[in-house]
Amino acid sequence: MKVLILGSGGREHALAWAVARSPRVTEVVCAPGNGGMAKMARCLPVNVDSLDSMIQLAEAERPDLTIVGPEVPLSLGIVDELQARGLRAFGPTRAAAMLESSKGFAKRFLQRHKIPTANYAICNNQAEVEKAIDIFHAPIVVKADGLAAGKGVIMCPSRATAIEAAEGLFSGKLLGTVERQVLIEEFLEGDEVSFLCLSDGKHVTPLVPSQDHKRIGEGDTGPNTGGMGVYSTDALLDPAMREWILRHIAEPTVRGMAEEDTPFVGVLYCGLMMTARGPQVLEFNARFGDPETQAILVRLESDLVEALEACIDGRLADTALRWRQGASACVVASSGGYPGSYKKGLPITGLEAAAQLPETVIFHAGTALVDGQTVTSGGRVLGVTATADSLEEALARAYKAIKEIHFEGMYFRHDIGHRALKKKS
Ligand SMILES: Nc1ncnc2c1ncn2[C@@H]1O[C@H](COP(=O)(O)OP(=O)(O)O)[C@@H](O)[C@H]1O
Ligand SMILES: [Mg+2]
Asked: What CATH number has the domain spanning 125-180?
């Protein structure tokens, strides 16, 4: 069977790696892929922001299964388009992907179905923003309604900063695109957990939980990034809490989407804040997370392709997933200067030595293969990922591997997993 993976990040490399391990898969095609995927699969150019470009490629390749990595193609309706052409695709339809592509839609949905989330107001203009801010008090969270590649959420310590942030979103000054709706949210305190589930539209199967590190600086300081590292261990959620989240958040979401005639098939990523009043939904993503996927898939012992096909065929209830016990950790190596501007095209050394270490996989994100040499091509360059019997060992393995790797200006956080380690001691 031939599998097409759309996307070019660390998430997609991890998907390609997991798919290639399936005994049923004879060919993996990545589009556009990256330097790491180019070493294991055929990579083809595509523009994942253009339906036409993706459709043309899928028509030419006729894959047996397409897995959609990023959110933009899902929000454009790539799964609807592929299905209309008789091509099997894993991911939600355009209507179901609204859970991610419109934060306003998601908030109203959560409220309709009484699923715990921060109090909020959806504002159409600046006057409504000011009214809402008076109700919530500072600190306040201001959010763009639409997809913003992680740049649409602003934490505001005061009324004045919140007003300014909303103005920036409405005017287009902040994101470059004009927002027609802005969300004002109550500020929640707690630890964040990424709770990813597979759904076939009716049944929900959780994947192992993980915790991302969004900030560039150690101790969770500095600006937000796409994610600087992640770890996964079952200890992140005790069995009772996991069950509670399943019963009160993930299952009602999938049930609600089905009731509203937009069944959700794909990965339902619940971004949760574990607050004193229980878990609250910060947001949904309608796809695998990056870098969560790297840490999750290295723990998956079952056949990923089987599981994704079970979602498409509506038989997830009969499919059990097996996991490596213990833990995994993924440390992201980024370009110097990221999330600001950075150099590209810098040669990377030590990849082979690092990959030979036990239970270690180097997932590429912003890399390219140029005349046989792997070079940097993006902000987040690599996700150095390892598994072990304990989180401490998984982290030690990932950090040992990252020390083998070098490129000019390479940066990584030395404190991935610090919250879990602190809790233990
Ligand atoms: N209501 C909130 N209270 C506190 N922090 C929040 C709140 N909403 C979002 N955040 C923080 O902002 C980050 C990004 O927000 P999120 O809604 O996940 O948007 P996106 O991932 O689309 O940028 C979250 O991971 C969380 O750290
Ligand atoms: Mg998020």
From this structure: 3.30.1490.20
Between CA 143 and CA 267, with CA 365 as vertex, the angle to 5 degrees is: 55
272-326 pLDDT, tens per residue?
999 999 999 999 999 999 999 999 999 999 999 999 999 999 999 999 999 999 9
Contact 191, 209 (CB under 8 A): no
pLDDT in tens, 356-390: 999 999 999 999 999 999 999 999 999 999 999 99
Other C-beta atoms lying within 10 Å of the C-beta of residue 252 = 17
Q: Is residue 48 a contact partner of residue 58, using CB atoms and an 8 Å limit?
A: no
The residue with tokens 């992680």 is: 150
The whole model's pTM is what?
0.97
Give the class (CATH, top level) of 2-93.
alpha beta
Provide the residue ranges of all domains of the chain, joining segments of one domain with +: 2-93, 125-180
Q: Which pLDDT value is given to residue 425?
A: 61
Residues 305 and 69: their CA atoms lie apart, in Å, by 14
Cα separation of 118 and 273, whole Å?
A: 9
Q: Which of 283, 290, 292 to mutate to test ligand 1, by most ligand atoms within 8 A of the CB atom? A: 283
Q: Which residue's CA lies nearest to atom 1 of ligand 1?
A: 187
- Domains 2-93 and 125-180 agree in fold: no
d(CA 396, CA 390): 10
Q: Are 287 and 267 in contact (CB under 8 A)?
A: yes
Sign of the Cα torsion 299, 70, 189, 206 reads: negative
- Interval between CA 280 and ligand 2 midpoint (Å): 13
Dihedral sign (CA 331, 334, 336, 340): negative
Q: Report the nearest-CA residue for atom 26 of ligand 1.
A: 282
